[in-house]
Amino acid sequence: MKERDSIRSIKGIGEKTQALFGKLGIETIGDLLRYYPRDYDEYKTPVAVTEIKEGEKCAVFGRISGRIGLHSTGRKSVVTAGIREGECFLQLTWYNMPFLRNTLQAGGMYVFRGTVGKKQGRLNMEQPEIFGREDYQKMLNTLYPIYGLTKGLTNKLMVKTMHQVLESRELVQEYLPEEYRTHYGLSEYNYAVSHIHFPKNREDLVIGHKRLVFDEFLFFLLSVKMMKEKSQDAVNEFPMKLVWETENLIESLPYTLTNAQKRVWNEIEANMTSKSLMSRLVQGDVGSGKTIIAFLAMTLAAANGYQAAIMAPTEVLAKQHFDGLFGLLKEQGLPYEVVLLTGSNTAKEKRERYEKIASGEAKLIVGTHALIQEKVEYQNLALVITDEQHRFGVKQREMFSQKGGRPHVLVMSATPIPRTLAIILYGDLDISIMDELPARRLPIKNCVVDTSYRPAAYRFIKKQVAEGRQVYVICPMVEESEGLDAENVTDYSKRLEKELPNTVKVGCLHGRMKPRQKNEIMEAYAKNEIQVLVSTTVIEVGVNVPNATVMMVENAERFGLAQLHQLRGRVGRGEHQSYCIFIQGSQEEETKKRLEILEKSNDGFQIAGEDLRLRGPGDFFGIRQSGDMEFRIADIFQDAEILKQAAEAAASILALDPDLSLKQHQRLKEQLLSYGKERLETPGI
């Protein structure tokens, strides 16, 4: 079984199952092997009833006290039992498993494993697994993979399929030179793949994880460094001079630019009017005012007779940029035509806009990935701005330069990455930091609470909506998933509809919706036709609804701090006081410590630094910190040390062999090309 083979070649995978795997982006054997577990279920040492805590998953060893009950509620049969130790009592409940009444014995000693909840003031464990003491002993400290799923696909099937593939696949020939594996303490590739899916223990998992993270960082950095070699001596093909239009625009704004904004604008202006090509990253915290700086740069290009384009990761954000830029030009009486190009445009709209772009009639172009489609031709594109760039690959930035001369590149990101890491990740760009928030913004009030606070949170939401405000509620999942105790958007929006008055319109938004549908929901929310929006993290980037004053995040422990800070940035954009409620589904002390960082600070860079300091090597269970970078397994925060090692290795390899033409790097080059093709990030090598 080879990596490029279709998953249909796996025994038992038919057309329907293939379609389900396809929803997860799994088409080939290689895709499946690189679909890493999102978490691991660890069989820990059993505890006594006196030690259990609400919200935690644990194994409890004890004797069944009293009788084992069986009754029916509607179509459900319910089996109940309990464990008592002194004053402490744990209720055990199983649904639709009537046979357990005869299997379990009153007075019998068992290990029960599940998540502890509370019902009617009593600790309760629903649907717990049941083990004899000796059977559980065999499972002790083992790790069971938990995969991200889609409706119709179970974790059990995923595990079975993965086992099958690992047993019958063709092994990959090692491509990383031995000297690097020895120097950085890296395992062999096939060992790493096998042990990331089925580790015998934590030590095995750490070993496998380190190798795969190192590879992913190495490929990314090799791509970036090779691109920098090609572009660092590029000459500015679009000579510009300073213009009054930008000065007038700054003077007439209804607010004064911050010192940080002025500094960054001066750096961009100097770049664009120099003899060299600009490649600059503007890294600014949520709400620091990056967008107006982007519009100033576009105005500078247009006033010099050139075209400028800004590319956003979502249609919602592209439309928002279009409205903002169009309104600004109209206010200032500036004559430049601006067009919006997205996948949702009709064929007729696209044709008309292609013509305006090709003729140069449209000086300013706003859009999504549609801006780099083959049919789009620019007359004299001098400036390309990518918003939230980490969602675009370096290859996609390169594609703009194939549509004419090589343009100036300005990259904007609100992800607060410590400077040391930013320099490594954005090695092909100069870095500007916008580290100041506009004085007119009220600081957001934060609180970290457990699930018992939820009724009070609902009352607060009702009060805010009654005052005319709007609310975001974030859940980690789209729909209910087997084996995962976390809130999902689909069920939660229905629950809120029942909790809130009929006059309150609740909307539901997630990434699996079609772009047009997402746009309609966001537009309805922007117009206050929807008061409470229940969403996944799809709303984290750039959406601007000044009337939204409450951000409530369920299962906050399942998100990285950088991501939570990005989400928090969706509120606090208007004149009213804003609030952020982080609801913690787990009572673990470490999680509490991390979330308290958010409670105490609204400074994204400080949060990122603190989070980095709190994490230790191998601290990667269950949290994706920087999923926005779109690495499959690597995480720039928790894997910061590995990132530094990979950067050192990439520099060493390219110093010896700039185009990877030496014999010892042939297999590495093949893997790099494969990575580039898959991720659309590697330039032609």
Instruction: Please write the CATH class name of the domain at 445-601.
Output: Alpha Beta
**Radius of gyration computed on alpha carbons:** 27 Å
Number of strands: 22
| β-strand amount | 15-25%
Low-confidence stretches: 616-628, 680-685
Known CATH architecture of the domain at 445-601: 3-Layer(aba) Sandwich
CATH superfamily of the domain at 445-601: P-loop containing nucleotide triphosphate hydrolases
CATH topology of the domain at 445-601: Rossmann fold
Derived from helix and strand composition plus strand pairing, the structural class reads alpha/beta
Helix content: 25-40%
Major sheet: 7 strands, mixed
- Structure annotation, total helices: 23
Structural shape: globular
Overview of this structure, please?
With 685 residues, the chain is α/β, with parallel strands linked by helices. Among the domains are: 71 residues, no CATH class; 93 residues, Nucleic acid-binding proteins (OB fold (Dihydrolipoamide Acetyltransferase, E2P)), CATH 2.40.50; 157 residues, P-loop containing nucleotide triphosphate hydrolases (Rossmann fold, 3-Layer(aba) Sandwich). Helices cover 39% and strands 19% of the residues. The radius of gyration is 27 Å and the shape is globular. It starts with 14 loop residues before the first helix and ends in a 6-residue tail after the last helix.
